[in-house]
Amino acid sequence: xxxxxxxxxxxxxxxxxxxxxxxxxxxxxxxxxxxxxxxxxxxxxxxxxxxxxxxxxxxxxxxxxxxxxxxxxxxxxxxxxxxxxxxxxxxxxxxxxxxxxxxxxx
Length: 106
Known about the structure:
This protein is mainly α.
């Protein structure tokens, strides 16, 4: 009887140790999965951050280029408008003078 009780105790102890080891393995697996998920999330965040910064830089560069081109075009248009206005002024002044001379008989 004592041998049987010892055998049952040994079997219970072995089963307990096996279940405990399995629980530890599962716990370690969960920890490992948590760490891997955390690392993957960090990698993804860094990738998104890098892509966002790159897009920001390209947008900024494009905006500056567009600003410079618009400024250049505006300056050219202003110069052409001033030039045209001066020509129109001189033609109008010459025409007015000629008309006045005709009236006065010069």
